[in-house]
Amino acid sequence: MARRPTTIAIPSLGSLDKAAGRIGTLLTQALRDAIAKGELKPGEALPSTRALANSLDIARSTVIEAFHQLHAEGYLVSRARRGTMVANLCAVDDLRASGSRSQPSQSAPHLPKNVARLAGVASTLRPQRAEPFAIAHPAGAVAPDDKWRRLGNRIRATRSAAPSGYTDPKGLLDLRIAIADYVRKARAVKCQPDQVIISAGTQQGLFLAATVLLSEGDFVWAEDPAYPAIVAILENFQVSVTRIPVDAQGIDIEQGVAACPRARVAFVTPSHQYPLGMPLSMTRRNALLAWARQNNSWIVEDDYDSELRYAGHPFPSLQGLDPARVIYIGTMSKTMFSSMRLGYVIAPPPLVDAFAGARALIDRHSPTADQHVLAQYMKGGHFEAHIRRIRVAYAERRAALIAALERELPSWVSLQSSDQGTHLVLWLPAGFDDVKFAGEAAESGLVVRPISSMYHASPPPRSGLMLGFGGFSVEHLRKAVLQLRDVLDASKQVMGDLKKQPRAGDLRAKRPAPGTS
Ligand SMILES: Cc1ncc(COP(=O)(O)O)c(C=O)c1O
Question: What is the position in ligand 1's atom list of the atom closest to the CA of 332?
Answer without folding.
Answer: 9
